[in-house]
């Protein structure tokens, strides 16, 4: 894999901006679609062998999942509003439909369903744990939408807001080997938003042996693929960074390994 950065562009006639499959990414687990819909526009889907998490990044929508429906979900019009998101989890074999009731930014996150049988569930903002991680210029805000403490077969989904000039996914860490409680093998996508939107952030994806080593200037609406390696993000001064992370792998647990040369940064100040 050489092209890790997928640039933002105008949506197609269905409203889709990004479309990642295991085949297009050259990996095994994660699928990711990003839709920008006008009010009244709809998208739908169904997978016999993949579970799905629908994340309302911004805007409101009517959502039908299996035999359940919710009207006019969503109470933030931007991921920078200091509000946690609404999301809906569906196990494999269930169909879904989303109809925008305002301008809508919708992320469709998928991964293999392994057992099935889990219930469809609405994930409300009050169900999403929030925390502040790091210290100093490494401080960031984290919203755990679908953490490993909540039921799913493969998916892990989280939002991160990085203040201007700060770093996140830092000190550099990786999760590309299965090593018990020390590390799990997880593919990952980063869907980036920047506020104000003319700004940028930087992301580096690299391995210890530098067989993979890419540094990318990331702009508003871009998507970064992380098949393996370390993947720190830095927000430019004056610009707040947001990203939606999707992770999945052969074992559903988030255990990461910090780069040895940077572990000194984890010591208390």
Automatic annotation (TrEMBL):
Record's keyword terms, sorted: Isomerase
GO molecular function, one term: glucuronate isomerase activity
Enzyme Commission code(s) on record: 5.3.1.30
BP GO annotations: inositol catabolic process
InterPro entries in UniProt: Deoxy-glucuronate_isom_IolB, KduI/IolB_isomerase, RmlC-like_jellyroll, RmlC_Cupin_sf
Pfam families named among the record's database cross-references: KduI
This protein's record includes keyword Transmembrane helix: no
UniProt-recorded name of the protein: 5-deoxy-glucuronate isomerase
Natural source organism: Azospirillum griseum
Gene name of the encoded protein: iolB
């Amino acid at each position: 894999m050489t092209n890790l950065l997928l640039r933002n562009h105008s949506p197609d006639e269905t409203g889709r901006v990004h479309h990642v499959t295991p085949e297009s990414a050259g990996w095994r687990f994660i699928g990711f679609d990003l839709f920008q819909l006008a009010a009244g526009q709809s998208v739908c889907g169904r997978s016999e062998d993949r579970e799905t998490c629908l994340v309302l990044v911004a805007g409101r929508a009517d959502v039908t999942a299996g035999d359940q429906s919710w009207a006019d979900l969503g109470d933030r019009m931007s991921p920078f509003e200091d509000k946690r998101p609404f999301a809906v989890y569906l196990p494999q074999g269930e169909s879904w439909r989303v109809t925008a009731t305002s301008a809508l930014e919708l992320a469709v996150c998928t991964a293999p369903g392994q057992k099935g049988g889990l219930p469809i569930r609405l994930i409300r903002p009050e169900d999403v744990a929030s925390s502040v991680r790091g210290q100093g210029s490494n401080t960031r805000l984290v919203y755990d939408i679908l953490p490993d403490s909540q039921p799913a077969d493969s998916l892990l989904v989280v939002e991160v807001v990085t203040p201007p000039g700060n770093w996140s996914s830092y000190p550099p860490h990786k999760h590309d080997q299965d090593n018990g409680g020390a590390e799990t093998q997880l593919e990952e996508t980063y869907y980036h938003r920047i506020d104000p939107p003319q700004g940028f952030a930087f992301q580096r994806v690299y391995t210890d042996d530098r067989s993979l080593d890419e540094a990318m200037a990331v702009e508003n609406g871009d998507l970064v693929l992380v098949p393996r390696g370390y993947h720190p993000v830095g927000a430019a001064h004056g610009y707040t960074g947001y990203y939606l992370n999707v992770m999945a792998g052969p074992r559903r647990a988030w255990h990461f390994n910090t780069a040895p040369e940077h572990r000194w940064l984890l010591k208390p100040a």
